[in-house]
Design goal:
With about 500 residues, the protein is an alpha/beta fold. Among the domains are: about 190 residues, Rossmann fold (3-Layer(aba) Sandwich), CATH 3.40.50; about 150 residues, Phosphofructokinase domain (Rossmann fold, 3-Layer(aba) Sandwich). The chain has 15 helices and 17 strands. It starts with a strand and ends in a 13-residue tail after the last helix. Helix 2 crosses helix 13, helix 5 packs across helix 6 and helix 7 crosses helix 8. Strand 10, helix 6 and strand 11 form a beta-alpha-beta unit. The structure holds adenosine-5'-diphosphate, 1,6-di-O-phosphono-beta-D-fructofuranose and magnesium ion (MG). 1,6-di-O-phosphono-beta-D-fructofuranose (FBP) binds next to loops. It is found in: Cytoplasm. This is ATP-dependent 6-phosphofructokinase. It catalyses: beta-D-fructose 6-phosphate + ATP = beta-D-fructose 1,6-bisphosphate + ADP + H(+).
């Protein structure tokens, strides 16, 4: 995070309220602020972009909150930015003081002025897609934060994902009701896939009089949230829309990671540990663990790195093959010979092109349109047994297959993730209260920032198999590349 020492547009003493025209001008100055030519600041949509007569509601109520004593630097202003890249390679003509170019995002946090009056604020919270540890904590913190920080009393939960906007009556939420939700896995609001009907959803937002919409979900949800934001803007509604990325797969881009990911890795590590114990305790034992990761192998990679018991990690970003020189079977044969056992971790999206499937299976999609995968773990287990029976019919062999899929994501968040959930929820509230809309909150280089929703919806976070992390995996497992043209054996 950088704080550029630019003169502030206003120099308000805490609690002072300048005339509304001045406040709006201050805000617009903030909004259109440009830094040195070396820094491109990602512009964030604001309600004032399309509501010309929008007036600020006044100073931030935290000014008068007995639990806060806003001091210099408490409020985030136009010069607080978060740089996208903190590690970079300078070209010979550049210096550290003046690199050629930086992309920056607006830093998350409370603003001096807000655009929503607490009495008139009506917030809706929805959870969509698959489960992820911490969803209930985010909901709890949204409710408690809106209530305690900004005095909002009209807070509603939308049941069962996007479809709930138009098919189920919203439930009223308050701090008493949600006080212990952070200890519970899943989402008390319930979630679902599919059911995205833009017109019905935005009609429901209008009909219920919601003016702040908090959307918690993964990549699919974020793509839906962009459409909601755009439709709200087209209708010129004073409705702030924000997305809070939830993805156990950690497949949402730009942000460092999603909440719940660390918890998922911890749970995955337990499954790997069990697989290792089983494998070690058998003659020619293979422990096989399938982990979540539809199109990205982050959980598999991180659990492999942290457990160190893994002999081979297979992720969707890299191909592998079974038979022949340099293949998985040859590698495992070698490992069993050397160590007597082996542990294989496979992400659910890995090797999908190797598994035979019918035409109907090829076309199968879930309600959100995501491809339905075949069970790579079960397939691999069968293939391993066939191979061993063929090659070593008289020798003992066992494959213990562990599929901890739902155990990994159905647990409450660990301490680190719970802290993340609190920060992300409060940052989302501060952003909407400040009139920003169409944005996502998340950590970039460990500092929470506001990022345009449309950017996040497009950015995919895949494992970069050319970077150091994947090198570490290979140095731990000593697994080959499984590249057919590269005929190196282990
Ligand atoms: N491209 C899209 N446009 C609009 N809505 C979408 C889109 N993709 C997914 N959704 C909706 O977002 C919700 C969650 O999507 P899904 O892919 O199941 O989970 P996740 O958000 O966790 O990736 C579903 O209600 C789905 O209909
Ligand atoms: O059985 P479900 O509920 O469809 O969930 C399975 C999927 O959910 C995930 O855990 C997470 O997916 P999303 O984040 O896209 O919801 C995937 O890894 C997995 O393929
Ligand atoms: Mg998804």
């Amino acid at each position: 995070m950088a704080n550029l020492s630019q003169p502030e547009a206003t120099n308000l003493a805490a609690g002072q309220n300048p005339p509304p025209e001045q406040q709006l001008q201050d805000h617009l100055d903030d909004h259109a602020f440009s830094f040195s030519p070396n820094i491109t600041l990602k512009k964030l949509p604001h309600l004032s972009d399309y509501l010309q007569d929008l007036q600020p509601a006044g100073p931030n109520p935290l000014d008068h909150n007995p639990f806060f004593h806003p001091s210099d630097g408490f409020y985030v202003n136009k010069s607080d930015i978060v740089l996208r890249q903190v590690a970079c390679r300078l070209s010979p003509s550049e210096t550290i003081a003046s690199p050629s170019h930086h992309l920056a995002y607006i830093r998350a946090g409370p603003r001096k002025q807000i655009f929503f009056d607490h009495c008139a604020t009506r917030a809706a919270i929805v959870t969509c897609g698959g489960l992820c540890p911490g969803m209930n904590t985010v909901i709890r913190e949204l409710v408690v934060g809106l209530w305690d920080l900004y005095g909002v009393r009209q807070i509603y939960g939308i049941k069962a994902g996007y479809r709930g906007f138009y098919s189920i009556h919203p439930i009223e939420l308050n701090p008493k009701m949600v006080h212990n939700w952070h200890g519970r896995g899943g989402t008390v609001l319930e979630t679902s896939r599919g059911g995205f009907d833009l017109t019905k959803i935005v009609d429901a937002i209008e009909n219920h009089g919601f003016n702040q919409v908090y959307i918690i979900g993964g990549d699919g949800t974020m793509r839906g949230a962009v459409k909601i934001f755009e439709e709200v803007r087209r209708r010129k509604l004073k409705v702030g829309v924000t997305g809070i990325p939830k993805t156990v797969d950690n497949d949402v881009g730009i942000i460092d990671r999603s909440f719940g990911f660390q918890t998922a890795v911890e749970m995955a590590e337990q499954a790997i540990h069990a697989a290792h114990v089983e494998a070690e305790s058998a003659v020619n034992g293979i422990g096989l663990v399938k982990l979540m990761g539809r199109s990205t192998g982050h959980i598999a990679l991180h659990a492999t790195l942290s457990s160190r018991d893994v002999d081979c990690c297979l992720i969707p970003e890299t191909e592998f093959y079974l038979e022949g020189k340099g293949g998985l079977l040859e590698f495992l044969e070698q490992r069993l010979k050397e160590r007597g056992h082996a542990v294989v971790v496979v992400a659910e999206g890995a090797g999908q092109d190797l598994i035979p499937r019918t035409t109907a299976q090829k076309e199968e999609r879930d309600e959100s349109g995501n491809m339905v995968f075949l069970d790579v773990g079960a397939w691999l287990k069968t293939e391993l047994k066939k191979w061993w029976d063929r090659e070593h019919p008289h020798e003992l062999f066992t494959v213990k297959y562990i599929d901890p899929t739902y155990m990994i994501r159905a647990v409450p968040a660990n301490a680190t993730d719970n802290l993340y959930c609190t920060l992300v929820a409060h940052s989302a509230i501060h952003g909407l209260m400040a009139g920003y809309t169409g944005f996502v909150t998340g950590p970039i280089n460990a500092n929470h920032a506001y990022i345009p929703l449309a950017d996040v919806a497009q950015a995919k976070n895949e494992v970069n198999i050319k970077d150091h992390k994947w090198e570490w995996v290979r140095s731990i497992t000593n697994q080959p590349d499984f590249v057919k043209s590269n005929q190196n054996s282990v």
